[in-house]
Amino acid sequence: MLNIVLFGPPGSGKGTQAAKLVEKYGLKHLSTGDMLRAEKTSGSDLGNEVAAIMASGKLVSDEIVNEIVRKQIGLHVGKVPGFIFDGYPRTTEQAKTLDMFLQQVGTSVTTTLFLDVPKEELITRILLRSQQNGRADDTKEVAEARVVEYNKWTLPVASFYDSQGKLRMVDGLGDIDEIFNRLAAFADLALRTA
Ligand code: ADP
User: Fold this and answer.
1) pLDDT band for position 4 (50/70/90)?
2) Ligand 1 pocket, 9 CB below 6 A?
């Protein structure tokens, strides 16, 4: 399987690039942000539980997101050529759990692609996006809180994959297709050496 972890700070363009990787490689897109927003919209107990946390820019608990991902892997494994994880894992605990989940179904993370975007650019992009999609957490204050959470909890996940020799840095500046070509070059390489 080709299992890609698409990694990067909030506003780095993970969602946009994930959609293009899905199109090219036929992968199943697992975005924990999208799945949590869907829970919220559905008005489920879980959705109500996570709504306030998401609105604050803090991370939802590892238990909740791990369970969501576990279910999705179980539903799709064997039916798709691989997964693209977007916005997950966001803590080292989640990364360890993902390794375990994938091992249980006889596969593993193939490569982690880190979309590298300078800090100053991130808030600008998030605020621009808020004008287009009206996402409740795309305000300046919440965006800043998300960057704080990212630096505290998520950045260490890059070291986790680096120590496994799986981290690839990708310049996240430039036009969308240019960035996609950089990502695809690493995905192709991973496929050839898999
Ligand atoms: P971003 O565009 O900031 O990367 P996402 O759409 O991935 O945002 O996530 C939105 C919010 O959903 C996060 O701020 C967080 O509250 C919650 N969330 C998403 N994925 C995770 C995760 N893997 N662990 C904990 N919380 C998460």
Assistant:
1) very high
2) no
Beta bridge pairs of residue 112: 5, 167
Contacts of 182 (CB under 8 A, 6+ apart): 170, 171
- Sheet containing 167-171: which strands, arranged edge to edge? 28-31, 83-86, 4-7, 111-116, 167-171
Q: Which atom of ligand 1 is nearest to the CA of 57?
A: 14
Question: Residue 7 pairs with which residues in a beta bridge?
Answer: 114
Q: Closest Cα to atom 15, ligand 1: which residue?
A: 59
Angstrom distance (rounded) from CA 73 to CA 81? 12
- Cβ(40) – ligand 1 distance below 6 Å: no
Give the closest residue to 8 by CA, choosing from 121, 104, 113: 113
Pocket residue to mutate for ligand 1, from 30, 32, 35, 147, most atoms within 8 A of Cβ: 32
Measured in Å, residue 53 CA sits from the centre of ligand 1 at 10
The CA 87 to ligand 1 mean position distance, Å, reads: 6
Tens of pLDDT along 122-154?
988 888 888 887 777 888 899 889 999 999 999
DSSP state of 115: E
In terms of Cα–Cα distance, which of 51, 16, 30 is closest to 125?
16
Stretch (H or E) spanning 169 = strand 167-171
Q: Is the peptide bond before 89 cis (omega within 30 degrees of 0)?
A: yes
